[in-house]
Amino acid sequence: MCSSGSLSSVRLLVLAARVMSLENITDEDAMEMEQKEHLGLFDALGSLLEDPTWPQMHPKPCTDTPWPGIECEIERDPPIFHVTRIHIGPDILTPPCKTSAKLSQSLLKLPYLKTLSLFSCFTSSPVSLSPFLFGSAFSSLEHLSLGSNPSLSGDIPPSIAEIVSLRVLCLSQNSLQGEIPKEINGLFNLEELDLSYNFFSGSIPQEIGGMKSLTILNLSWNSLKGEVPCSLGQLQLLQKIDLSSNKLQGRIPSDLGHLKSLVLLDLSHNTLSGPIPETLSGLEQLQYLMLEDNSINTGIPIFIGALMGLNVLSLSRCGLVGPIPTSFFNLKNLTALSLDNNSLNGTVSPNLGTLPNLDQLNLSHNQFSGELQLPEEFIEKPGKRLDVRGNNGLCKKHQIYSNKKSSFSLPADDSKKMKPVWYEGDMSSSSPKFDQKFVFPCLFFLVLFA
Ligand SMILES: *[C@@H]1O[C@H](CO)[C@@H](O)[C@H](O)[C@H]1NC(C)=O
Ligand SMILES: *[C@@H]1O[C@H](CO)[C@@H](O)[C@H](O)[C@H]1NC(C)=O
Ligand SMILES: *[C@@H]1O[C@H](CO)[C@@H](O)[C@H](O)[C@H]1NC(C)=O
Ligand SMILES: *[C@@H]1O[C@H](CO)[C@@H](O)[C@H](O)[C@H]1NC(C)=O
Ligand SMILES: *[C@@H]1O[C@H](CO)[C@@H](O)[C@H](O)[C@H]1NC(C)=O
Ligand SMILES: *[C@@H]1O[C@H](CO)[C@@H](O)[C@H](O)[C@H]1NC(C)=O
């Protein structure tokens, strides 16, 4: 999910308030902003926002009459303001986007714009990413976030790669489609690429390995096919890879083991096949490993027990066979372990219950057998969720078990959620929703420029 980055900006000098009409910008006013930029801003916002009184109410958006979501920076010599950030979204009190909202070419009249962030803005009339807008002309743009815009559709134009200043490209939760352009590797300054929750198809281009600055890659919830490109192994700065909920096939590339900074690897809900490459044991920083719902169809590799930093490990529905490796008892930082819906067998060692941080353990629907001997402290730990249902050979000694009949699933069942993973708060997100309270009467303010 996109965040709307906050760039530091020179905060506003307060000048004496004064009424001014737009078509009458004097020399003194030019101190505020160049006329071309000024008009470009009003025009760009005019094509987005519902409230036509905006320019009258905010003739000096950088100084006397600041506007939430717009930030300016001052250039010293000569002293003049430039718009550096435009943000529209339900999180701040702006007028809503109008139903005919569109992306105006006038944005190119803002040569100092570093951040463009538009959330829940394009909801009814179709809007696309025009190559005339999203190309080299956007010379200062560092942060482009267009998110939760259901009527933003069409392809990503290859020209987007010409915005070489881009550091964040977030196009999450729109209706974009087509293939991810291979030209995207031209964005060598890009640190964050989030194309999640769209309708992208085709394969992930190998060229992605050229984006050397990338730290976050989120392509989840699309219809991407083909293999996970091994070129990802070249992106030494990568911290998070989320390719979940696609149609990816083939093996997990062993090159991923080179990613020394990787904290999160989510390849869940694909059709990847096993085995899990042993090179992954080199991922020393890894905290989240989510592979559930793939066709791994092997035993659980012992080396996973070497990933000492693991917090969350999910191997549900992977067709796994054989026992839980004893190496798992080293995973002292593990808080959630999901092994449900596999064909795992053998006994459930009491050692599993001694992992100090483990509070979610799902072993349901396997072929575990013998007596379940998890320590009493573990069973009774507050907030813990243990699920051992659907293991026919497993017998339960403790009274506490038999009281709960066949199920130890406690207390809430989150299986109805779309993505029942146990991320930390900052990793999950709720999508911004269009808030009805921002709806204003429809008026037209462009006439002011006539
Ligand atoms: C990737 O995007 C999806 C959908 O926008 C979001 O739910 C998920 O948390 C993101 N993944 C990471 C690792 O941030
Ligand atoms: C523009 O400013 C001039 C002098 O300051 C004034 O005479 C004129 O009426 C103004 N025009 C408008 C349209 O406000
Ligand atoms: C386990 O978690 C603790 C506390 O968050 C952290 O200091 C430690 O480095 C982690 N251990 C490993 C092996 O990553
Ligand atoms: C897990 O396996 C059980 C038994 O085979 C099946 O009823 C259930 O639908 C599976 N759950 C999921 C989420 O696949
Ligand atoms: C576990 O299953 C494998 C076959 O997948 C079998 O060879 C092995 O004997 C079983 N072990 C136990 C303890 O049942
Ligand atoms: C364990 O996994 C099963 C099957 O995937 C799921 O239905 C159940 O809700 C999970 N239990 C808990 C406690 O999360």
UniProtKB/TrEMBL annotation:
UniProt KW keywords: Cell membrane, Glycoprotein, Leucine-rich repeat, Membrane, Repeat, Signal, Transmembrane, Transmembrane helix
GO biological process, one term: response to other organism
Broad class of the protein's primary localization: membrane
Alphabetical list of InterPro entries matching this protein: Leu-rich_rpt, Leu-rich_rpt_typical-subtyp, LRR_dom_sf, RLP23-like
Signal peptide: 1-21
Cellular component, GO annotation: plasma membrane
Record-linked Pfam families: LRR_1, LRR_8
Domain of life: Eukaryota
Cell compartments where the protein resides: Cell membrane
Topology relative to the membrane: Single-pass type I membrane protein
Keyword Ion transport: no
Presence of keyword Membrane: yes
Similarity annotation: Belongs to the RLP family.
Protein name: Piriformospora indica-insensitive protein 2
Source organism: Ilex paraguariensis
